[in-house]
Amino acid sequence: MTEKSCCQNSSQDQKKGFWSGLFYGLIPHSFCIAFIILSLVGATTAMVFLKRLLILPYFFQILIGLSLFFATLSAVFYLKRLELLSFTGIKKKWRYLSILYGVTLLVNLLFFMVIFPKLANFNSIKNQPKVLSRSLMALPVTLSVDIPCPGHATLIISELKKLPGIFSVTFRFPNLFEVQYDAAQVSLQEILNLDIFKNYKASLYEK
Description:
Layout: H1 6-26, H2 30-41, H3 44-54, H4 59-81, H5 87-92, H6 94-126, E1 138-145, H7 153-160, E2 166-172, E3 176-182, H8 188-192, H9 196-199, E4 202-204
Antiparallel strand pairs: 1-3, 1-4, 2-3
C-alpha cells in the first residue's frame, strides 16, 4: 500500500477548504438571493415574507455571523475526524483553515460590494422608460438612506418603485439612491414618508 504524500494532502485540503468556504459563504444569503430573483420576476406576494427578514436592521451582519459559524462548525468536524482538534492540529492544518475562512469572507464581500448592488440596478435599468429624457415633469433627487449594507439596496428600490410617478431608481454605493420622479403624480415629501424609511432613515443628499 502506497502512502499519500504531504503534497497530495495539501492539495486536497486546499480544494476542500475552497469549496467549503464557498458553500458556507453562499448558504446564509439564500434568502437575499430569493428576494432578488422574486423582485426581478415580479412575484410580489412571495416577497412579503422575505421582506420581513430583510427589514431587520442587522440582518446582513447576522448572515455574516452565520457564515463564520457554519465555517467554524465545519472546521471542528474536519479536525475532529482527523483527530487533530487541538492547537497543534490547528497549526498543522492552517492552510485548510485559512482557505476556508478566507473564501467565506470573500464570498460575503463579493455579495455585499458587487453582486447585490449590480442586481439592484439591473432591475432598475431594465424598467426605466425610454421617454424619461423627453419628459418635462421628470425631476431628479438623490436620497441618502441609512441602510446597514448594500444588500438592502434591492429592498429600498422595490419599495420606491411602488409609488406612482417613479420613473427610475438607481443605487450608488454605498447608500445613495438616484430617483427620477413625476412631480405631478408624487411629491418629494411623499417619497420621504415611505414606510420603509421609518426603519431606514432617508434624507436629501447634497453634493
